[in-house]
């Protein structure tokens, strides 16, 4: 029996009409039954939808942003389809749904649930366009809504998977269909027990591919990127990068934990547990080998550099001349969890707790408001968090030239520094 395979195409691989044509060419000799294709929103659509939400929350006019987003997708379709194609009606219908959803009131109290209802439109629009274009090219696929099989809790924006229910739905609803046609679906989105839309965290389409792979006992997952595979640094930021031919699950998981953007952090664990190999390949050079992530890969000692931008350093200092105790750490983490803020770096001193977090709309001021009565709080914005795995001490200094260092820590295998341009 043929084993199911999962392909995932990110935003860069569907960013315009040329990219969508390239995706079709990649699939032309690879499309077959028992294949699921997961697609992300086109280009920077998710960022645009977040900007619309930001404007709405602040009471600003977002009509230009909304019209611009619709025109962006409309222009892509004009280059891909004949004028009378049904995709234009489908596109108008989806953007009408988006406009209707945006008419509902938004506040900080319902922001996360509202976010999930709005931002998932990017994947719905993208997947419709790609599915229709593949069929137009006589590459027949079934468009399916991921929310009918990806079941989650109601932890909006960072929903947790109901694995048992998801596997049952995938096996019952989608597996019989794969005997006849490949399926094209969306990454990033799911639904809770009440049918409300949820999302799996930014860049969560990789995770969707892993969820479907483990739920359907797939033989492999392939993520198509604009890089030749998994590199030891982002080639846009650092010169002389090296590609890993193979990586073990643990090493890949460590890279994603510290923020390597090539794979979503939650992707590795379910694949490792199920022993399903993950391939990272280039959609610009689809015949190249890429990187294989699997159980028996050799360990590496190559320095791996991960840079996270738009970071905030927050320091909580006790005000009653006591030392930091477990109860202080618990209070800070309790509020971080409530606000869905992930700690990228933690450092403790005798009298303070310092954390590094991503920028999230209005969440920092909420954190400060909740803890200001218990701590003296200081923070710095617009920072970078640089992590070097398997670092060489004599080479670290080169990454600090021209930067002010605000926080630094090192272990045997990991060096981290919070820095900003001088």
UniProtKB/TrEMBL annotation:
Domain Aspartate/glutamate/uridylate kinase: 3-282
Assigned GO CC terms: cytosol
One Gene Ontology term of the molecular function aspect: ATP binding
Protein EC: 2.7.2.4
Gene Ontology BP terms: homoserine biosynthetic process; lysine biosynthetic process via diaminopimelate; threonine biosynthetic process
Gene3D superfamilies assigned to the protein according to its UniProt record, in alphabetical order: Acetylglutamate kinase-like, Aspartokinase, catalytic domain
Transmembrane segments: none
Domain of life: Bacteria
Record keywords, A-Z: Amino-acid biosynthesis, ATP-binding, Kinase, Nucleotide-binding, Transferase
Record pathway: Amino-acid biosynthesis; L-methionine biosynthesis via de novo pathway; L-homoserine from L-aspartate: step 1/3; Amino-acid biosynthesis; L-lysine biosynthesis via DAP pathway; (S)-tetrahydrodipicolinate from L-aspartate: step 1/4; Amino-acid biosynthesis; L-threonine biosynthesis; L-threonine from L-aspartate: step 1/5
A family per Pfam: AA_kinase
Catalytic activity: L-aspartate + ATP = 4-phospho-L-aspartate + ADP
Family as reported in the entry's similarity comment: Belongs to the aspartokinase family.
NCBIfam families associated with the record: asp_kinases
PANTHER family per record: ASPARTATE KINASE, ASPARTOKINASE
Protein name: Aspartokinase
